[in-house]
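Hello, quick one for you while I still have it in my head. Could you read through the record and tell me how the tokens relate to the sequence? No rush at all, and the record is pasted right below.
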Amino acid sequence: MGVIISLILGGFSGVVGMIAHAGPLDQPLIGLALASVLVAVGAWLARVRYGASGGTAYVIGVVGVTLWLSYAPPADDTLIAVPWAAQVWVFLSALSAGAGLLIALVVDRRSSSLSGIKPLSGGSLRLESTEENE
């Protein structure tokens, strides 16, 4: 079920990223940064919440929808406002999703190696005291 949710979330992020990459008031650098952060945070969330298979499904959703809307849009409608930014976004969407997965992996390994911090079943962390409570 988590893989399906991640795939849908990735598709939705791909659509929003495709719209946002042009930027507000035709400022594509701001739009590319905003869309990249959106995709990276979504990849991190999918990886932390649903594991490696959820993170992979999210990346497939983002990249699939981005490629579909860029190169074979439905009903010959295009969402390209700034041509060079659209080409950059195709590559940046995959790079941002991969970066989000990498950040989640590094944070997960780092937090599990710290002493005194035990993961809860829901994915959050709990700090345990080593001293006896009196």
